[in-house]
Write a structure and sequence with these properties.
By secondary structure, this protein is mainly α. It has two domains: 124 residues; 115 residues, Orthogonal Bundle (Helix Hairpins). Helix content is 82%, strand content 0%. Helix 7 packs across helix 8 and helix 8 packs across helix 9. The chain is elongated and about 135 Å long. The N and C termini lie far apart (88 Å).
Length: 271
Amino acid sequence: MKNRFNWFFEVFFVALIFLDIFLLLISAIFELRITSYYNIGLFDLLASLFLIFGYYFRFKYKLAEFKLIYIAAFIPFYFIFINLIGLTEPNFLIILRLVILVKIYVLLKLFNVLGRRVISFQERSKLIYPIIFFAVMLFICSTIFLFAEQGINPNVQNYEDSAWYVIQTITTVGYGDIVPYTAIGRVTGVVAMLSAIIITSLITASATSSLVEAFREERDKLTQKNMERIRIIENKIDEINKKTKNLDKLDELSFQLKEIKSELERIKKSK
């Protein structure tokens, strides 16, 4: 039960770190709504608080492993920057990007600490491949769709609108609130649809690989257990054989003793 809790614990914090990194990158590269910057700042604050709790829970008995660089991951720089400096600062984007680069670097360092089990699992299951493919396709298709549709399509004003269209296309939801107006936008939509098939195939392959690996491990454990039982039984058989040999020797000695007694009796009678 404890191992299962630790597993879900690590998965949660790994997902939190990746989502925080993705949002920070998007806010540094593309122009977003004003409210989105504040929302990302709020998410960064919550993520920082959760990471403090997670790191303490993970290493409360191993304070020697604590490194000062991790403090940067616990400080909500984005939230502080947005609320203290504000969006009206002339060098807003330059300062913001520097802050984001530092935060992302430290988050990746922290990921290697909090996500050791997840890293080990993905190395066996290869589940990281469909996740990375989804993130890359979302980023690329959203960027292309934005440049193709912005200024032409009234429903595409910023990166959020573009990402929303790509997400609902990849997930095959298709609400229809945003449709492409340009040829490049339509081609991007087709690529997003096809990528959904690839993502599904990768997830299926990863899940199958994980199941096969789990069955193989279970089989190896069962084989090892049976081999151990066979070894124990063989040892017991050897002990029984030794005892049987000893009994045979006793029978032989008893027979020889009887012969000696018989010989002695004959000698006495002959006298």
